[in-house]
Design a protein that fits this description.
The complex is a heterodimer of chains A (145) and B (413). Chain A is 3% helix and 42% strand. Chain A is globular. Chain A starts with 6 loop residues before the first strand and ends in a 5-residue tail after the last strand. The longest helix of chain B has 16 residues. In chain B, 56% of the residues are buried. Classes of the chains: A mainly beta (145), B alpha+beta (413). Chains A and B meet through β1, β5, β6, β7 and β9 of A and β6, α6 and β7 of B.
C-alpha cells in the first residue's frame, strides 16, 4: 500500500440486467428498459412490467432531458477521495416524470440550482478492469424552453 | 366500544412491562449483555419471570451488517435466557422498528402466545468508533473493497444500492435531505423552524439522565453547527449509541393482573401504499408513514385531537415534521408553522414532543426509545421529566423512508 490518501470508487456490479443503463453513455445515450407492449419505462429495471404484466421488455434510448425534483448539497466525506461539496439530485425524465434517477448535478453554480429546473444528461466515463461505466450526470439544459 | 373494535388484535393486548439497558455513546460492553439487561428489566417490571415468556419478537434480528446495527438476534436471546417460546420472529423488512411489536400483538391475538418479549438493541456507537457514522471504504460500514492499487479502491455495489452509491448518495442523511429539500421548497418551512426539533430534543434530554447529549444548545449553536448535506446539519442527525430497549406485550386480561398498570394499544398502523424505493416515492414531500397513520386512525374512534403527547422518530429532524403531518397532528405542509418557536411542542405546550430527548440528543435507540418513553409518561414514571398532567393518549411513530409504523397507546381502557 502507498501512503497516498485512498480514493474509493463505487461502481455498479455490471450484469446483463443493468449494462444498458451503465454503459449507454458509450454512445452518448441514456438508455432505460421499456415495455414493448405498453410503452412504460422501468427503473430500476425489473423482469416483468408492473403495468401490464408483459415480459416483452427492451432497452431504449430516451432524450436525456429531465427536471430536478429535489437536490441536496453534500459536504460530508462519505466516500474517501470524492471532491466536496457535491450535489446529489433526483431528476424526473421528461418522457415519464414519475421515473426518477438519483444523480449528480454538474456544470452549474450551487446558487443556480432550483427544483423544477430543466437539465440534460452528460456522461462521466470511469475506466475499470471489469468494464467501463458511464455515470449519467445532469447539467442545466440552457436550450430548454 | 363496538364489537368490531373489541375484536381488533390491539384491543386483546397490552404492554405489561418495559426495560432499558444502560445507554451511552460508546459503552464498550457486549451487546448481548445490554440486550439481556433490557429484556430482564422488562420482564421484571411486568412482575413476570423468564418462564412466563412464551413469545419473542425483535427488529431486525441477526444480520451480517452494518456493524452495530443489531446487538442480538432472536435465537441468541431465546437461548441465553433459556426461553421456551411458542412463537418467535425477527426481520428487518417490516413496518419500521415497531413492526416487531405489531407482529407480537398479532401473535397474541392469533392465540400463539400470551407474553411476548420484544426488543431492539444497538451498539453503533462502539462499532463506528472514532470514525463517526458509517462511511464507505477501508474500515467503513458498507460493502467490501475489491481490487485497487495506486491509492484507488474500487467497490462494486450490488442490488438496489447501485442506483445511489456511484453518485455519492451513500447514506440515509442524503436520502432524507432530498425529501426535506422538496418539502421545504413546496411549503416554505424555514431553517429556523426546522431547528426547533433539535432544540426541543436537547431541552428534554437535559432532564433524562440516560441521554447522550444533555448540555443546552441555542439557535446560534444550531446555525454554527456543521452542515452535513443541505438542509441537514449535524444537529439534525441522530447520535449513534449503545443500548437496548425491551417491552413485554401481554394478553390483555393477563396484563391487568400484573405488577404495573397496563399500557393499552388503541390502534396500530403498518400500511405502505407507496413505492419502496427511497428515490421513487410518488410524492417526495410525504413519508410513507402517512399510509400507516391513515390505517391507524381507521382502527380507532379516537382522532388526532385526542392526542396529548407525541413520540416521533427523529433519526433525522425532518422525519419528525413528516410524522406530525402524517399523523394529522397538524395540517399537510403545516409542520413548520406548528413547531415555530418550539412552545407548542415543549413540555408545557399543547403537544409535548420527544420528552426523553429523542434520538437526536437521547441516542439512536432506533424506534423503541419512543415507545419506551410513551409508556414511562403514561404511567407517570418520568421523574424529573414527567409531564404534568400525565398524558392519557400518546402517538408513537417510528421509522422513515420506506420503513414506517405507528402505535396509539393509552393508559385508559
Amino acid at each position: 500500500m502507498t501512503d497516498q490518501p485512498t480514493t474509493v470508487v463505487v461502481l455498479p456490479e455490471l450484469t446483463d440486467g443493468n449494462r444498458h443503463f451503465w454503459q449507454g453513455g458509450r454512445t452518448g445515450q441514456l438508455v432505460l428498459l421499456r415495455c414493448q407492449d405498453c410503452g412504460y419505462y422501468l427503473h430500476p429495471p425489473i423482469p416483468v412490467c408492473p403495468r401490464d404484466g408483459s415480459k416483452n421488455l427492451a432497452p431504449e434510448a430516451v432524450s436525456g432531458r429531465a427536471t430536478v425534483a429535489t437536490y441536496s448539497v453534500n459536504y460530508h466525506p462519505w466516500i474517501p477521495g470524492l471532491e466536496l461539496p457535491y450535489v446529489v439530485a433526483l431528476v424526473e425524465i421528461v418522457e415519464q416524470p414519475e421515473l426518477r434517477l438519483t444523480t449528480n448535478l454538474v456544470g452549474c453554480a450551487l446558487e443556480e440550482i432550483r427544483i423544477g429546473m430543466a437539465v440534460r444528461v452528460v456522461f462521466r466515463q470511469i475506466e475499470d478492469s471489469r468494464g467501463d461505466v458511464w455515470l449519467p450526470l445532469f447539467e442545466p439544459d440552457r436550450d430548454a424552453q | 366500544m363496538s364489537a368490531g373494535e373489541r375484536n381488533r388484535a390491539e384491543r386483546q393486548c397490552a404492554i405489561s412491562g418495559i426495560g432499558q439497558s444502560d445507554v451511552g455513546r460508546r459503552l464498550g460492553r457486549d451487546p448481548l449483555e445490554l440486550t439481556l439487561d433490557a429484556c430482564y428489566a422488562a420482564i421484571g417490571d411486568a412482575g413476570l419471570s423468564s418462564s412466563d415468556i412464551d413469545g419473542l419478537s425483535t427488529y431486525p434480528g441477526m444480520m451480517f451488517g452494518p456493524k452495530g446495527f443489531t446487538g442480538a438476534g432472536a435465537n441468541e436471546v431465546i437461548d441465553a435466557m433459556r426461553l421456551q417460546v411458542n412463537w418467535f420472529d425477527s426481520g428487518v423488512e417490516t413496518s419500521g422498528q415497531l413492526g416487531s411489536v405489531m407482529k407480537a400483538i398479532m401473535a397474541i391475538a392469533a392465540g400463539m402466545a400470551d407474553h411476548v418479549l420484544c426488543f431492539r438493541s444497538v451498539w453503533e456507537g462502539s462499532a463506528q468508533g472514532a470514525g463517526g457514522r458509517a462511511s464507505l471504504g477501508p474500515g467503513g460500514g458498507a460493502g467490501g473493497p475489491v481490487g485497487g492499487g495506486g491509492g484507488r479502491v474500487t467497490i462494486y455495489s450490488p442490488a438496489f444500492q447501485q442506483w445511489q452509491l456511484p453518485f455519492g448518495s451513500a447514506a440515509a442523511p442524503i436520502w432524507i435531505a432530498l425529501y426535506a429539500q422538496a418539502h421545504m421548497d413546496r411549503y416554505g418551512v424555514t431553517p429556523e423552524q426546522l431547528a426547533q426539533i433539535a432544540l426541543n430534543g436537547r431541552r428534554n434530554a437535559g432532564l433524562n439522565p440516560k441521554a447522550i447529549y444533555r448540555d443546552p444548545i441555542t439557535l446560534d449553536d444550531y446555525f454554527n453547527s456543521r452542515m452535513i448535506t443541505t438542509p441537514l446539519r449535524i444537529f439534525d442527525c441522530d447520535v449513534p449509541c449503545d443500548g437496548a430497549t425491551a417491552v413485554v406485550v401481554s394478553r390483555r386480561a393477563l396484563a391487568e393482573e400484573l405488577a404495573k398498570p397496563p399500557v393499552y394499544i388503541e390502534a396500530m398502523g403498518a400500511a405502505i401504499h407507496d413505492r419502496t424505493n427511497w428515490d421513487q416515492l410518488r410524492d417526495l414531500t410525504r413519508t410513507v408513514g402517512a399510509d400507516a397513520a391513515a390505517q391507524m386512525w381507521a382502527r380507532t374512534s379516537l382522532t388526532p385531537a385526542d392526542v396529548d403527547m407525541a413520540q416521533l422518530y427523529d433519526g433525522f429532524s425532518y422525519l419528525t415534521l413528516l410524522w406530525l403531518e402524517a399523523l394529522g397532528l397538524c395540517g399537510p405542509g403545516e409542520s413548520g408553522a406548528f413547531i415555530e418557536g418550539g412552545t407548542r411542542i415543549g413540555r408545557d405546550g399543547s403537544l409535548p414532543l420527544n420528552t426523553a430527548g429523542g434520538q437526536l440528543s437521547g441516542g439512536r435507540l432506533h424506534g423503541y426509545g419512543f415507545l419506551h418513553e410513551a409508556c414511562v409518561q403514561l404511567r407517570g414514571e418520568g421523574g424529573e421529566r414527567q409531564v404534568d398532567p400525565w398524558p392519557g393518549v400518546v402517538a408513537v411513530g417510528a421509522g422513515g423512508g420506506n420503513t414506517c409504523g405507528c402505535l396509539l397507546v393509552t393508559n385508559v381502557d
